[in-house]
Design a protein that fits this description.
Layout (H helix, E strand, L loop, with lengths): L1 E6 L4 E6 L4 H10 L6 E5 L5 H12 L3 E5 L2 E5 L9 H4 L9 H8 L1 E5 L12 H9 L3 E5 L2 E5 L7 E3 L8 H11 L5 E5 L5 H12 L3 E3 L5 E5 L8 E3 L4 H14 E7 L7 H9 L3 E5 L2 E5 L8 E4 L10 H8 L5 E6 L7 H8 L3 E5 L2 E5 L8 E3 L3 H13 L3 E5 L2 H4 L5 H7 L3 E6 L1
Parallel strand pairs: 2-14, 3-13, 9-10, 17-18, 21-22
Antiparallel strand pairs: 1-22, 1-23, 3-5, 4-5, 6-8, 7-8, 10-12, 11-12, 14-16, 15-16, 18-20, 19-20
Helix pairs in contact: 1-2, 1-7, 4-6, 5-6, 6-7, 8-10, 8-12, 10-12, 11-12
The structure holds uridine-diphosphate-2(N-acetylglucosaminyl) butyric acid.
Length: 419
Amino acid sequence: MDKILVHGGRRLAGTVRISGSKNSALPILAAALLTKETCVISRVPDLSDIHYMLTILSELGCEVERASGVVTIKAENVDTEAPYDIVRKMRASVCILGPLLGREKEATVSLPGGCIIGDRPIDLHLRGFEALGAAVRVQAGNVKVLAPELRGSIINLRGKFGSTVLGTDNVMMAAVLADGTTVIDGAAEEPEVVDLANFLIAMGAKIEGAGTRRIIIEGVKELHGAEHEVIPDRIEAGTFLVAAAICGDGVTLIRVEPKHLLAVTEPLAQAGFDIESGREKITIRPGATRRALKLDAHPYPGFPTDMQAQMCALLATTDGISVVTDNVFPQRFMHVAELKRMGANIELQGPTAIIHGVEKLGGAPVMASDLRASAALVLAGLHADGITEVNRVYHIDRGYESIDEKLNALGAEIERVKV
Ligand code: EPU
């Protein structure tokens, strides 16, 4: 198991190229199950979560080829039951349910357990499948969805924490091959949902309204092969913006979509940083002052829960009192205890972190608990005195393509050590 050593105190400057989006690529790869024809998906990031998804697709019987970010998938004949051993490693495996149900009218995966960022049910996904006419059975840890036929329906996918991203993806993927029209109300508006819809449209699906709260899908008889380029990863981009805010002297992100990042760049500007956005690029420079922030994570277009931990790392050394609330995953604060071990002054009150900015953090051995928490610890280490040793680094490799190499190219000093 690798660990990462961050030598604090280096300044970052220069240009970093943003990779394709993990959370777009995962459901888009699964959507290739909807046709017997070949799909070619480019700008697929090289991440362990992507590797798991490709393994699941191969195990289901797809022919899968991958060469420098381009994945070719042909799903001529497919099984409908995903192997537990791989599925248990990644919660996003649930997004094979929708396309398998759409195409084969049945699918089985193991029911995802809770995870470190909280209890993560799939009741809304299942509610959507039932509305399309599927029976749902939970047996021996597996969930099986089965429908003699799928019929278009009106479905509300809003839950108590707002919309569901993978739930919207899943229901949309099943509904494209249903009989008649499906209306998804309370749909997730995330850019990753729009990216999936665009891929499905390229495959011959009829979808309107992706990116709004109401998506309308007119079922078609079959889909065909298509080519698609995945959108830039707005969370990887946001993470580099925060790294540059913590210890940068001018960093430019390229191949990024600035309009997907407004909920991150606006608070950074409010905190005193100088942000300049152009076509596919964003530059961040230090401003004259730094200010504490009040942040509330909400579904898109709100401030993303996936950026909450990284922002806590920045605010830990920002003078004043910052207040950060996560309304999407109220328990997603495992990074707080680790940041406190580095000298941060943070108090947790339910879904809210109250952060009293300190001048400096100190390097310490810390434990990564999930993907974004590990990124936050690396970022905190960039500015800390001494060495921060981030253990269980496999979490970070699930969602960041070569984060250590990219940060080192900007001037950081990060070592990856095999243990
Ligand atoms: N929820 C339910 N019932 C459901 C589904 C969700 O109550 O059936 C709740 C969740 O427990 C949570 C909220 O609704 O409180 C939102 O969850 P959502 O379903 O939107 O999350 P997801 O689709 O499982 C995706 C991303 C996450 C990201 C969330 C929120 C992928 C592969 N994952 O998860 O990404 O945090 O949306 O934006 O797209 C990450 O990349 O680090 C990550 C965790």
